[in-house]
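Q: Hi! First time doing this. I have a protein sequence and I read that you can turn it into a structure. Is that right? Here it is:
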Amino acid sequence: MSDLIAAGRCAFDTGRTFQRHWTVHYGFAGIQPQDGARFVSRLLDMVAKQARREGGHMTALWVRECASGKGEHVHILLHLPVGMTLKNRTRRWIKAAGGTWSAGASKGTIIGRRLSKLEGSRGHRQQANAANVLRYVLKAASVKTGVTLNLTRAGHGGPITGKRCGWTQNLQQAGSRAQKQVY
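A: Yes, that's right. Below is the predicted 3D structure, encoded as structure tokens:
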């Protein structure tokens, strides 16, 4: 988890504050637990391609969880090019990644509520909102890590088959440096 925190910190420090929080309940989309990491990778590839088509780059950080009653799902934090929207795309991407669409399979939210306000400024309020969402997705951290980081919901990630979390390559160096830092 310290690598994930370092990747998030790198995003903030380089002006790529997360603007979107996309939750995909891939269990509702018919994706089996052992295929979850591959499914998430396919989704992120499609988002990245769209970001490039719109003249920018995607920065993302993601955490897979398994909650009782909700099943397996992924929280994806995204920094996208100005003006890029997820609206009317997520259903198509879920299907193209191998899932089936069903009610409750996907929920996208704008971090800080209004994208038009966010794109015009890089204020501290947006970073604070994004940092709070990052803390929320860290609930999958161990209880020990949660105590160290003063997280109120640590240890709530549930069992996961395969890779639990990751980030895009443009944050990769931050993650590899994180092992030398204490959190």
